[in-house]
Amino acid sequence: MLPDFGNHLTTLAAFLATVGIVVVVHEFGHYLIARINGIGVRVFSIGFGREVISWRDRNRTVWRIGLIPLGGYVAFHEPKPNSEQFSAANKMSRSSGKPDGTFSNASLRSRSTTVLAGPAANFLLSIAIFAVVAGITGFPENSAEIASLKPLPKPSQLQFAEADKIVAVNGYPIHDLSSLYLYASEADPSEPSVYLVEREDTLIEIEGPFPTPPIMEEVRPVSPAFDAGLVPGDVVLSVDGASIASFLEFRDIVSASEGQPLTLSVWRDGETLNITLAARYEDVPAAGGGFEKRLIVGVASGLFFDPASYFPTPFEAIWLGLVQTFSIIVLSVDGLANIAFGKISVCNIQGPVGIAKLSGAVASQGTIEFLRLIGILSTIIGFMNLLPIPLLDGGHLVFLAYEAATRKPPGERTKRIATQVGLLVVVALLCLGLLNDFTCF
Q: What's the count of helices (H) and strands (E) in the chain, helices before strands?
């Protein structure tokens, strides 16, 4: 049975926008550097299969959109091998160093940079997206200063004011957000929380909520919590009739549930709702590296207030984008290695149906989250294309590296066999992803 996408049109539009942006940027990277290197581009295609629309520009490049929106390609001009002058022309163009507009006769440097340009364009897109998002949303400062209060069921928090700085909780000194989270991890949530806050150079005692109440700070798309209808800002009052006062209590109940259904009493905008969900096992990154299997529902904790935010300068935002892109690459390498050695499930490989479902779910959470998804997928697509699999950019780079080392390209028969093997690998991965889309979770 097909997965329930909810709004099919929204899901389809989100999927096409996500894949379209990532693929166009990737292929345009190839196209742009090829043109700079003097290599003619014969076809620029978004999608495969039957042609939906096409046009030819003044440079004789055919721009086309294919019926199957699962990728794209750029085809370069190549010399015609059926000409008797082909061999001589090939040798002359290589020895003279003058490009004749074909890919095969271009210099090794030109071909290498053209191949690398696709993944590089994806990485640049990711860095730009993450930098823009950081500039728009900022990120929390490590100061326990209240910027705004979150809606909670009990009005005790109304005694707080914006710009209040928390100095201590129940006598425990608070220097920054880290120490506040540390206190919350060790304190008894059933005891009253008495805060010492600094307000306009005056110290005031206020009784308030537990620092980390059972509030859903984030709800991950395509997760048990998302599928059950939880949204950011929801506050869990009780689980199976047992009242809870902290997110840690909620997490412990989920961890001990063994995947059995849990009935939550949830406060949302003054109303109380009953929501049933069941946690599931997933491979999640471990603190010390690698992965661990854990029961999760797909939510993240938060404080009872929004801390003060810091908005980075453009250079800082670019650096943050670079760090985030590199982190995704490292996590992808770690994930693939663990899948290859059987340490984590192959269910972590998703196909087009899973990506479509994810795109639609993220699109429903707003523009910022959708941009983040495009940035993440762009990094992953760039990284995957660098894998040394014939048919992908990484496979072409292996051929070029061989040519650089031996001063001659691989034989046509070798390249043909390698490309066929690469095609089988890519098709097998696509089939595995499709199978996972319908059988996992």
A: 11, 18
Summarised one tens digit per residue, pLDDT across range 167-217 is 999 999 999 999 999 999 999 998 999 999 999 889 999 999 999 999 999
Inter-residue contact 276 to 263 (CB < 8 Å): yes
131 in Cβ contact with 371 (< 8 Å) = no
Q: In sequence order, what DSSP letters do the residues of 74-102 get, joined into one string?
A: EEE----TTSTTHHHHHHHHHHH----S-
Asked if residues 34 and 316 have their Cβ atoms less than 8 Å apart, the reply is: no
Contact, 139 vs 309, CB < 8 A? yes
Q: In what order do the strands lie in the sheet with 235-239?
A: 242-243, 235-239, 261-268, 271-278
Among 71, 66, 65, 77, CA closest to 35 = 77
Give whole-number Cα distances, 28 to 25, 170, 417, in Å: 5, 59, 28
Q: DSSP letter at 215?
A: B
pLDDT tens string 30-75: 999 999 999 999 999 999 888 899 999 998 899 999 998 888 999 9
Higher pLDDT, 169 or 288: 169
SS3 128: helix
